[in-house]
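Entry 14. Structure prediction run on the chain below.
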Amino acid sequence: MDTPFIYDKFVTGRNFIGRKTECHALRNLLEKEENICIYEPPKTGKMSLIQQTLFNMRMSGKQFSSVRVSLFNVRDEKTFMLKLCSALVRSAASTPAEYEEIVDAMLGGTHFTFDMEQFSLKDETVSLKGIPDVNDLQSLFRLPQKIAGRSGEPVFVILEEFQNVLDLGEESSDRIFGTLLETLRDRQTGNTGYASFIFTGSKVNAMKFIFEERKFFYRQAEHIPIPAVDKREISDHIMRGFQTGGKVISQDLIDGAVELFKGNLWYINHFAAICDSLSKGFLNEGTLMDALGMILSIHETRFRSITDDLTTHQLNFLKAILDGENKFSSVEVVGKYGLHSSANVRRVKDALKKKEIITFNEKDEPVFLDPLYEYWLGRVYFE
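Output returned:
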């Protein structure tokens, strides 16, 4: 579907709106050879922010290479190591000879080997013979610095869904975090060729556990929060998008959509794209309500699955949040919502955080991580 409202991939250039301050902050940190962590709910613009920043750096003449590795489907330590190693080697080599040279020169003495028989630019080309150990991890995490030194250009390693390292088990995750931390502390700075890691994650509470509670990378990775884009910029973006197709929408309806989705650009663009497909000229309230019904229908199966997995106490706690309560351990709230006891309230809060349904801000106020799920709970489930 041809639409000015893009929601199926990250955006850069003219399709990227707002967040100039965050782009500037990310660029400054990268140019100062810092490591960065970014954790926000799914589809809140993490990759768009990173790619727009890298786009701006390239446009200004900055020479560097970037390596993007998604850990969403990594379930064991060996797969993690092979996936990262192959991506790094692939970023620095384009022929079998270069692959073999890099593996031999930079990973010599480890269990990593180059597999000539299975060589393909589209496939994993690095093997891991034998049982990986800490020495393999150390060599792997030093590889970006070595590649940067070889090329004389910075290397930015983007590790997506970094919180999934926790799923590898406590022993493996502690070994990975500890070895990586040691490598970051020991790395050389001040060179033309340097390496920086960008850790991203869409499970907010799991990332907070790594970087805030356990402080695994304390003073080694700067956190960049991503606030909502200014409402006026979102409004202008929606208005321009409809005007491109010769369509008209009132400011009140735009404001209502922005408020409903709480500034989440992915939902807003998806919603606007549906509205765009339903209209031919003037967009009225009926069109927007039809679009809202469609987007709710798309996500309802997922929302039902999330809700079916909740206990009665957890659902009652969410109802209390929707009703504007914040003193959850008080006798009044515990009694009104059947939360049993203040000790049970703590268990319920921890469970809902672990399920990534809510988080708590600096003021210890509950925040739904998915604005449309929040709307669905209030308007459909608890109707």
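Residues 306-381 form a domain with the Arc Repressor Mutant, subunit A fold (CATH 1.10.10).
Filed with the rest of this week's runs.
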